[in-house]
Prior knowledge:
Distance between the termini: 36 Å
Number of domains: 1
Oligomer: single chain
Shape: elongated
Amino acid sequence: MDLGALFPWLLTAHVLLAISLFMPSFLLPFTFRFRRHGYAESPETGSGRIVHALLWLQSHGTVIIGAGVALTGLGMVAVLGTQLLSQPWLLVALSIYAANLAAAFFIQRPGVRRLLRLPSGSSPEEQDRWRALARRQRYVSYLMAAAIGIIGFLMMSKPSLW
Length: 162
């Protein structure tokens, strides 16, 4: 069997798994807009189900998805050869991806959990505190989105960096 024929499937699976690994941490801060006005949704309703699914994926799916990313990455190296690992654009993209995962795990996850524990608040002070924390989490998500864009640019253009 020609391993080269597997490459499109490996690449597609790798990209989808790599994005889905940190997507819950990226999307969750944007799902809290309803709570800003004191309306907290339960997991059984509309966007509450989405929040519940993202939280479940973040808590339970990361090991399986991470293993899938590693296996598909190793498969691509097996198909393309180990010289791929010496490409500067790939090393920079992998470094940015690692930093993005670290931000997702050490900043976004605890921040989202903290937001979920806080009451949406009836007092103006509690509402202001909640809004400030939610805004901070969204700003981190914007930075993560920029990192995703840079990774995509590096992977598609494969620039000569040094």
